[in-house]
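To: structure subgroup
Subject: Chain for Friday's discussion

All,

I'm putting the inputs and outputs inline so they're searchable in the archive.
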Amino acid sequence: MKLNLAIYKLNKFFSIEKIALIVIALAVVLRIINLGSRELWYDEVLSLLLSTSKNDAYNTPGDTPVLLAEYTSLLRLPIEANLRDFFLTIETLIKSLLGGEPHPPLFFLSQHFWLRLFGNSEASVRSLNTLFSIAAMGGAYGLGKLFLGHRGGLFFAALLGMSPFYLFHSLNMRMYAPLVLWVILSTWALLYLIEQEKLQITQNFRSQLLWNGLLIISISAGLMTFYLYAYWLIVLGVLVLYLDRTNWFKHGLRLGTGVLLTMPWFLWGTIKQLRNADLNRFGKAKSALPPLLRHLQDFTNTLGTDILIGDWATSLDPIVITLSGCLVILLFIGFSIHLWKQHEQKNLGTVLILGILPILLALMVDIATKKFTLGFGFGRTMIIILPGCLLLITLWVEKAVAKQWQTPIAVGLLLVYLTISVGDFSLRTRSVFRSVSELISQDWNQPTLIAMNSKAWGHVMRVAYYIPTSYPVMLLSQKPSGLAISLEKVLKEEPAKYSRILWLDSGNPLWSKLKTATEVESEQKKIQTVLLSQFQLKETQNLSGTMTLDKFTAKLYTQSLN
């Protein structure tokens, strides 16, 4: 009785529309206040390096110290004296993408021009993706309204805006936030055109130009942002056959035009990228499971990460990710059965094509090619499934849930997303190299050598990004097995050059890791012996962030008084 009374009051004073608008506003606020709350992670700083066009100028650190400011300069745009220099910069940027970068150029070109306008601060470089994500929320409303009406559009936009996975990628300088925008816009435009064709509504020239142009441009932009958007192109083709087979040729021309616009790049750039790409990394097993079980685990984990836990996947135990994926699968099966019983077979087919077909295609390709792309990157390679899966949830709430329960369930779903998202950004900080910079700033004018047991360029560039160029800092970056030898040699040749040594001991050097804990401990003792011969330990900090790449132990040594 009390429960029914509470539900009655909730339905009386609140509607899904009002709650969705509040959540959409909160989603925008969360994006704005968190633009610079976390430092750049490994892939973000590489995106910045590529966007400045100076990727080819990067040289892996050698056996001797190098001025850290030389690396910092690579994260800034080149100095240009005239228009010719500008075009040379763009040419250099595009050529640098052909040398092994596995992604198309649109994201990096857009970030490059954004850098020219707003600089390379954390908030600046992330703000473009934040704007893309807000635009995606607007597109989600349009798509949801077309599919389920005004209320469905608002609820769908609220789910997308508060999605833990999409919130993270909205604040991440990578290509995944705009990719979702192109997915939503292409789907919205295609469904609108299909509806017009089926109803035989004659559009005026301006309307035809708008919707055809939106479909064609979003397809081209999607393919030029992320190559796996090709899965989505197949999905759009299947959607045409499912909803409007009679006009398949007309819709096919529209889809084909979008592809045709990208052909110059594919025939020139993509082929060169494939020659230089490291595709073997997708074939390396990270699990002791048999291949088929590993594929199914990747499938499950991707659903759990993309739909429920978001970037928490980088910190949680793998079994928790798998269990969350199993929960999502069970819920989706339940939603589908419920919708089927409510005679929503056609709409159910549409959302399953949009949400589940892409990941099934990827799973089949992985099995056939013996690769593991689904398990790569904590679900982000399949972010294209997010809108379709959220549309399935929206359809279930709108069409299958009893009227008196719709608002409480909608509130509950949005609260789950809000709790996970707020918890992610409030409980999981990433301030590793900011802390390193603070350590050095204590006596910033003292000549300092940073000795780091990693040559991974993401680690090198993160150090360079956060330490001001005015500090007299040199960097000695070596493989874990060679740091002690190089450091000893440097200190023997120039014993009085450095007032301080900051030893950055990476928990995940990425390249040339030592194989056993015994080897790690042995190398650490060698480095410590070398340092204590001339320096004394002043301070130790254990640094960690949101993933294993963020784990460092920072030990600051100062000149011994002896």
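Points worth raising on Friday:
The mean pLDDT is 92.
The longest helix spans residues 122-148.

D.
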